[in-house]
Amino acid sequence: MIYLQLFWEYFKVGLFSVGGGMATIPFLYDLSTKTGWFTHAQLADMLAVSESTPGAIGVNMATYVGYTTAGFWGALIATIGLVTPSIIVILLVAKVLEQFRHNRFVEAGFYGLRPASTGLIAAAGVTVFMIALMNTDLYEKTKDIADLFRWKGCLLAVAVLVFSNWVKPTKKWHPIIFIGISAVIGVVFHFAGV
Amino acid sequence: MKELWNLFIAFAKIGVMTFGGGAAMLPMLQREIMDKHHWATEEELMDYYAIGQCTPGIIAVNTATFIGQKRKGTWGGIFATLGIIFPSLVIIIILAGIITNVSDLTWVQNAFAGIRVCVVVQIFNAVVKLSKKSIVDKKTLIIFIVVFLCSVFTEISPVWFVLTAAAAGILLKQWEVRKA
To answer: Does residue A193 belong to any structural domain of this protein?
Structure first.
């Protein structure tokens, strides 16, 4: 019963990811490895689409992953699964708001949880890095270290890094603009190698 | 019933106008919830938003549920949440259908190969930004490094890292209190 499984998996994502959209990504990579419902590369593409469309990234990702896995109903069920723990937890917490926020144990729990969540997202970043910027298949064949990296991609990555962090007008730009420009560069310079 | 419908519409609007969720949502919340409907004051809004960040789940969804609940109880929470997810459902389902059909085209594959490079950098930027608030001392730095390495080199589910890290946080803080 794929719908039930999808709901349960997404319920877990909603319950254990703390800190918004990006925090769901490590769980989705884990889900991909575990079930084979979609590939790691597909996940990177879904993330890009989710970032460039209206709505919260986490919700967009849930809809997209659900749709890829099981069509329209999959999209609906994955998204409902994602928000169910939020609804339950918030409805409970809303009644004891002040005690919850300043509870010593809650604060201490989040003190440990936040760096872990950051570490998980960084690890998911490594997975996308290997897909986008490395070519392990080609390296296996040729054993030439120069073939291990996709050099055009690396150049673009450095450019996006510099322009999105340190160059004056562009660092204020919305991520969608960088995604759009990267897409165009990918088409013009044949990034997929085809 | 009319109130519930108003909640749904207000949050659907916020959903449409928010790109990226989280912090990007705040100005839209202020405009719809504070200025237009007067459902919350600035301080209340910041409180709800803070709670949304430190409870499990997506920040935008948590904040919506919270405001809906304050306004109209359990059903208010549910309708506000349905409102915030509604635009995503419609837009992504349509887009996903289109992208699935064109994904074999050469230029689409090239475009996504370029986009993925951009995604790497954006995840990196997100990590840097998050680390400023999450890695605050040596202990949190160690938690970050251990979780990062274990997650890269093992297949352990993220659930275990989250649970262990929360427990570690509580133990570390307890230990600090005892020492002092």
So the answer is: no
User: What does the longest C-alpha to C-alpha distance in chain A come to?
Assistant: 63
Write the residue in B20, B85, B158 that is nearest to A30 by C-beta.
B158
| In chain B, residues 27-46 whose CB comes closer than 8 Å to chain A | none
Residues A99 and A150 in one domain: no
Q: Within this chain, do residues B84 and B140 fall inside the same structural domain, yes or no?
A: no
CB-facing half-sphere around the CA of A193: CA atoms within 13 A: 11
Q: Which residues contact A101 (CB under 8 A, 6 or more apart)?
A: B47, B50, B51, B54
Give the model confidence (pLDDT) of A15-59 as tens digits. 998 866 788 889 999 999 999 999 998 998 898 888 888 888 899
Please check whether residues A63 and A157 belong to one and the same domain: no
A119, B146 contact by CB (below 8 A): yes
CA distance A164 to A178: 8
Q: Which pLDDT tens digit goes with each residue over A158-189?
A: 999 999 999 989 988 877 789 899 999 999 99
Closest CA to A177 of B146, B19, B152, B131: B19
Q: Which of residues 105-134 of B touch A (CB under 8 A)?
A: 106-107, 109-127, 130-131, 133-134
- Number of structural domains (chain A) is 2
Cα–Cα distance, A83 to A87 (Å, whole number) = 6
How many CB atoms neighbour CB B173 within 10 A? Answer: 18
* A55–B58 CB contact, under 8 Å: no
The ipTM estimated for the assembled molecules is: 0.85
pLDDT class of A87 with cuts at 50, 70, 90: very high
Is the domain of A7 the same as that of A62? yes
Residue-number span of the structural domain to which B122 is assigned: 104-134
Q: What is the DSSP string of B28-65?
A: HHIIIIIIIT--S-HHHHHHHHHHHHTSSB-HHHHHHH
Q: φ and ψ at B19, to 5 degrees?
A: -105, 120
- Average pLDDT across chain A, whole number: 89
All residues of chain A having their beta carbon less than 8 Å from the beta carbon of residue B169 are 108-113
Lookup result for tokens 């509580």: B170
Q: Given an 8 Å threshold on Cβ–Cβ distance, is A55 in contact with B61?
A: no
